[in-house]
Amino acid sequence: xxxxxxxxxxxxxxxxxxxxxxxxxxxxxxxxxxLQDNLxxxxxxxxxxxxxxxxxxxxxxxxxxSALSSSISICDPDSREESVSTAQRLISIAxxxxxxYIRVFGKGNASTQSVSxxxxxxxxxxxxxxxxxxxxxxxxxxxxxxxxxxxxECRVLIDxxxxxxxxxxxxxxxxxRVSSESPAETLDTLGSTVEYVHIKDALYDPDHEYxxxxxxxxxxxxxxxxxxxxxxxxxxxxxxxxxxxxxxEKRWHPELPDPEQAYPEFVEWFAGLS
Length: 274
Description:
- The chain is α/β, with parallel strands linked by helices.
- It has a single domain (2-271), classed as Alpha-Beta Barrel (TIM Barrel), CATH 3.20.20.150.
- It is 38% helix and 19% strand.
- It is built from 9 helices and 10 strands.
- The strands form 2 sheets. Strands 1-2-3-4-5-6-7-10 form an 8-stranded parallel barrel, surrounded by 5 helices.
- Helix 3 (80-97) links the parallel strand 3 (64-73) and strand 4 (101-105).
- Helix 1 runs parallel beside helix 2, helix 3 crosses helix 4 and helix 4 packs across helix 5 (151-161).
- The protein is globular and about 45 Å long.
- InterPro entries: IolE/XylAMocC-like (IPR050312), Xyl_isomerase-like_sf (IPR036237), Xyl_isomerase-like_TIM-brl (IPR013022).
- Keywords: Isomerase.
- This is Sugar phosphate isomerase/epimerase.
- One of its GO terms (molecular function) is isomerase activity.
């Protein structure tokens, strides 16, 4: 398994700092979910006019871009045109930087549509995206997020799209915390469709000042209640050799530790699991 860090966890860092420190801390790659003041990296010079410099930083550090994490919502028909346009820009970046994965969300309108109807929307959007030049050379990973945190429902979406280029990004916090699934239940349902994994820990502490709406708050890996060690053990047993991303959400939760503390602590914690 390879370790990646997300730029969600270091919203103040420029791209050179991100690469330098990721290498220093012992990560194998960086997942770009925005950079500094812009969540859409396709609007940043580091990924457009100055992409050759970014490529040079990759080569110098020996790191990989583990994924480009987009805001594309494939099950939302109102955003389909923008989703396809964004996908086209991301494909160009992925080709320049040898990126294998692009993350997308499912989303959709669960108040007016069934899971099956939303899955149909997802298939239609992905059909358009996969018709773009270069799209089938990339793995499009749908996160277990929003309306798709239950593994059986996420499986409906993946099976409906029915393409070897579309698989699952398993966010363990969502399946365990939101949908109350054990890691074994999730893996039994999603199986080999899991291509990429997000982990972070959380504690149910509804009276804490930083508790989220559901009463949980994020804490350092290994100090909360989510089954992270069990997840890693099961993935190893099943021969998973893909990316494990520490999703440190400093951008959304500024009260969390600074990346200079959180990222090396994660690498040390993960090493202790082996």
